[in-house]
Amino acid sequence: MRKDSFYRLLHHSIDAQERFRQRWEAFNDDTTVQIDEQTMKEVLSALEEKLRNNYPFFHPRYAGQMLKPPHEIAIAAYLMAMQINPNNHALDGGPATAAMEIEVVQQLAQMFGYTEHLGHLTSNGTIANLEALWISKSIHPEKAIAYSSSAHYTHKRMCEVIGTKHVCLDSFDNIEEDILRHGIGTIVVTIGTTALGKIEPLHDILPIAKKYGVRIHADCAYGGFFMLLAHDQEPIIAHHAFLMLKECDSITVDPHKHGLQPYGCGCVIFKNPEVGKFYKHDSPYTYFTSHELHLGEISLECSRPGAAAAALWATLQCFPLQPHNGLGAILRKTRAAALQWSDQLTKNSTLCEFVKPELDIVTYFPRTKKFTATEVTKCTANVFRHLMNHPTHPLYLATVTVDSHSIQTHYPEFVVDAPTTTIFRSVLMKPEHKDFVNTLLNEIEMAIKIH
Question: N or C: more exposed end of the chain, with fewer CB within 10 A?
Answer without folding.
Answer: N
